[in-house]
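User: I've been trying to design a sequence by hand for this structure and keep getting stuck. Would you show me what you'd pick, starting by listing the structure so we're on the same page?

Assistant: Good idea, let's start from the same input. This is the structure you sent:
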């Protein structure tokens, strides 16, 4: 990111020192990929100012240095703030995650200052984990030792673990913390045997106040490392030092794990984190937009959350991808463009009609000769499945209701049921003529237009 310092030098020569310090000195280049230069600035206000007031100076400096058309993506990242004047010129990869609290201690602990308890979004899927982490922060080494956090990939285990470390450093800057993966622990241990420095190894790992070992499942099958870890663990527990472990599965499901370690892992508190539910997904998207300083409407975020039913990491990835693609192709960040990108079928235009959801339900009832309670009630009769799924599909495509709302309209059904129903009909409509016919007839009744059947082939 040599080039970014050249850009800064270029700008420095064009603006006053005060302005340079206020608006540019803390910016950092993060990546340069396919002509998108991503930089981070400490606040949304700075982002706004440099992308309006200093837009021309910035663009021409970039063009001069990079010598080509470059699209600038400015992110807001409050941890950028902490960088000192003196290392202003040296913008290297290492400075991207600049510590915010105690530089020395964070470096030693290997903690990422970006992962905090404050920016961890709490929802149904992770509130146990969050509460346990808070309890550990309140009473390290006492309440829950070890704290064992498990769950699938990308759900926030590592984030929470760093959150605990960062919070405890804030409480006590002199606390000794070690964060590492179980692989690092293993490698360190093996290296210490090879170099005959096991004493140093033990001193290091057994003298800390907080030991955070990420992805402990990788210790599986490594007998001597497990033995060493067992003793480390015991010693730490004796002196009330806190141990926090994460894993992609509960201890009982880790293969080739010594029984005594398994029972140690189960001896504190075990909490699992699940993939975020719909509301949490929306909240995570909101938080990430705020962090990045991007304005994206609630409606758009809802759409992305509906279509990305997976973990927080993928959700964030999807968001970044959408925003960058739209910016790159100079399209607005709106529902239609996002639908397009997500490959969601476009809404079939229904003239000037704004179809009311009640009308959809009553048309379906009329068509299938049902009563409202059949459609919205809890009965699981087979002949109700199709009318209900058609209702879901039409409410989604014609009334543009979000899944959650459709669930409510249909008598309190879960949004995943609705999603499933909509997908089912969408698929069936591709090949099943009977379904096609029903849809055309019901839609025609809805819009009072004459029927037009597909040609028989
Ligand atoms: P894991 O360790 O479970 O695989 P990570 O902790 O690495 O997952 O999380 C993946 C990404 O998702 C990180 O960028 C993290 O900040 C983000 N993330 C996960 N859960 C949350 C949450 N509840 N709130 C905010 N960000 C989250
Ligand atoms: Mg992780």
């Amino acid at each position: 990111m040599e080039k970014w310092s050249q850009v800064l030098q270029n700008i420095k020569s064009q603006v006053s020192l005060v302005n340079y310090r206020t608006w540019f000195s803390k910016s950092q280049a993060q990546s340069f990929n396919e002509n998108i230069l991503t930089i981070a600035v400490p606040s949304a206000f700075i982002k706004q100012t440099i992308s309006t007031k200093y837009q021309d100076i910035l663009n021409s400096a970039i063009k001069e240095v990079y010598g080509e058309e470059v699209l600038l993506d400015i992110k807001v990242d409050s941890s950028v703030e902490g960088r000192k004047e003196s290392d202003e010129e040296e913008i290297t990869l290492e400075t991207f995650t600049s510590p915010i609290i105690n530089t020395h201690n964070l470096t030693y602990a290997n903690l990422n200052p970006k992962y905090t308890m404050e920016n961890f979004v709490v929802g149904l899927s992770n509130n146990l984990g969050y509460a346990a982490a808070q309890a550990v922060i309140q009473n390290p080494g006492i309440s829950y030792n070890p704290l064992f956090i498990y769950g699938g990939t990308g759900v926030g285990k590592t984030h929470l673990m760093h959150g605990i470390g960062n919070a405890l450093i804030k409480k006590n800057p002199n606390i000794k913390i070690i964060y590492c993966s179980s692989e690092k622990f293993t490698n360190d241990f093996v290296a210490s045997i090879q170099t005959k420095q096991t004493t140093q190894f033990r001193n290091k790992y057994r003298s800390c106040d907080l030991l955070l070992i990420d992805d402990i499942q990788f210790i599986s099958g490594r007998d001597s490392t497990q033995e060493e870890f067992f003793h480390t663990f015991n010693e730490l527990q004796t002196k009330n030092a806190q141990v926090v472990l994460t894993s992609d599965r509960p201890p009982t499901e880790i293969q080739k794990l010594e029984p005594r370690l398994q029972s140690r892992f189960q001896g504190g508190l075990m909490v699992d984190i699940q993939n975020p539910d719909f509301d949490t997904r929306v909240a995570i998207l909101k938080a990430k937009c705020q962090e990045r300083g991007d304005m994206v409407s609630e409606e758009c975020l809802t759409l992305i959350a509906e279509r990305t039913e997976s973990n927080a990491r993928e959700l964030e990835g999807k968001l970044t991808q959408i925003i960058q693609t739209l910016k790159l192709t100079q399209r607005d960040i709106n529902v239609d463009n996002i639908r397009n990108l997500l490959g969601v079928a476009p809404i079939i235009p229904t003239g000037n009609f704004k179809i009311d959801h009640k009308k959809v339900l009553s048309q379906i009832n009329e068509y299938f000769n049902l009563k409202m309670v059949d459609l919205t009630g809890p009965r699981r009769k087979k002949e109700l499945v199709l009318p209900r799924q058609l209702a879901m599909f039409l409410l989604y495509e014609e009334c543009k209701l979000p899944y959650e709302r459709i669930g409510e309209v249909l008598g309190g059904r879960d949004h995943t049921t609705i999603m499933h129903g909509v997908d089912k009909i969408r698929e069936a409509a591709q090949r099943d003529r009977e379904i096609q016919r029903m849809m055309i007839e019901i839609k025609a009744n809805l819009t009072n237009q004459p029927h037009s059947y597909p040609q028989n082939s």
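That's my pick for every position. To get oriented when you compare it with your attempt: The two ends are 60 Å apart (CA to CA). The longest strand covers residues 28-33.
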